[in-house]
Amino acid sequence: MTADQPGRVVVVTGGSRGLGREMCRSFAADGHRVVVASRKAEACEKLAAELRSEFGPTTGAEAVGVACHVGRWQDCDALIDRVLAEYGRIDVLINNAGMSPLYPSLGEISEELFDKVFGVNLKGPFRLAVRAGEAMQAGDGGQIVNVSSIAAVVPAVGELPYAAAKSALNTITLGLARAFGPTVRVNAVMPGMFRTDISLAWDEEMLEHGSADAALKRIGEPHEIVGAIRYLTGEGSSFTTGSILKVDGGMAWSPA
């Protein structure tokens, strides 16, 4: 089965809402078998049911919801094991789950918060990519996309653990591309500010600042991440691996 061909098995972590939800909808609309994974089983199953109802009759799409806390190694293994047991393969993995909790000051960052941020943004994606990559290598190959952040190259004081984890995720992307080539391609996208449910917590000053800093003078809409994801998992990027693509409206000037 080649990239872009309907029926591929696509796993999206953090898939029940925000950018992940848009990714799941796009793959389902094209007739793929979508595994919606996030912490809350109910939210995953709800979206999976919506995808089956909306796209199943017209595209033949399938969807299943699976609870997975990506910060826990055993949850990552359980997710991969279930997908392989149910479908026999994984064609696409989108490591989209992430978190960046607020903290009062750098000195007040607890060890628990630090470890949790690294667990969800780095440890989990690493384990999932390794497990999925090995399965892809043993089969017909595949594509892995890690969702990083422009914080990796433009770290702000209020998100330093997150920025460090995403920077390390970029490094892992490059290493895994070499480890799993030539049959498995591993790339990353670095989103900027997007209007998702997370943005509801941002005050007006933060939104205005983000818009002013971007070359396009606005923040992104969730569906605008989809083109980059579909490019990196499709035939159009067949000679692209180990790449990190900014999708930020021109907000970050530092090179990726």
Question: How would you describe this structure to a colleague?
Answer:
With 256 residues, the chain is α/β, with parallel strands linked by helices. The protein is built from seven helices and seven strands. It has a seven-stranded parallel sheet, sandwiched between helices. The longest helix is centred in the middle third of the chain and has 28 residues, at 111-138. The two termini are 31 Å apart. The relative contact order is 0.13.
Index terms:
single chain; 256 residues; Rossmann fold; 44% helix
Summarize the structure.
Helix content is 44%, strand content 15%. The chain has a single domain, classed as 3-Layer(aba) Sandwich (Rossmann fold), CATH 3.40.50.720.
SSE layout and pairing:
Elements (H helix, E strand, L loop, with lengths): L8 E5 L4 H12 L3 E6 L2 H19 L2 E6 L5 H15 L4 E4 L15 H28 L3 E6 L12 H21 L3 E8 L12 H10 L12 H7 L11 E4 L9
Parallel strand pairs: 1-2, 1-4, 2-3, 4-5, 5-6, 6-7
| CATH homologous superfamily classification | NAD(P)-binding Rossmann-like Domain
Low-confidence stretches: none
Number of domains: 1
CATH class call? Alpha Beta
Tally of helical segments: 7
CATH topology: Rossmann fold
- Portion in helices: 40-55%
The value of Rg in angstroms is: 17 Å
Secondary-structure element sequence?
Answer: EHEHEHEHEHEHHE
**What is the makeup of the main sheet?**
7 strands, parallel
Shape, principal axes of CA atoms:
globular
